[in-house]
Amino acid sequence: MTARDAVSGFAALSHPVRLALFRTLCDQAPERASAGELAQGFDIPPSTMTGHLQTLERAGLIKAERRSRFMLYSLNSEGTRRIVRFLLDDCCHLRPELVGTDEEAEAQADALMQAS
To answer: What is the pTM of this model?
Structure first.
């Protein structure tokens, strides 16, 4: 992952609504959800919700799939792994005092990915 790609991912997650959407899709992975299902609990217009979902998709953190008239969204586990790996490898350089041992960091990253 390039630094530019990582910045795109971090920027996408920097908005509270997008972070909540990402968390929701992580919680229900590998299941998909429509924009309407994801919008429940948010007091924002559908076009704004669509914009947030598109931002997460462009950042490679979620996937969109058209089914008839609906878009279904799901976690992009590969994109999520890449951003986690960027933090561990490129930012922290797997320094044990920052993230634990290499094995611990890998186990934690793997556990996060398996949970999603």
So the answer is: 0.78
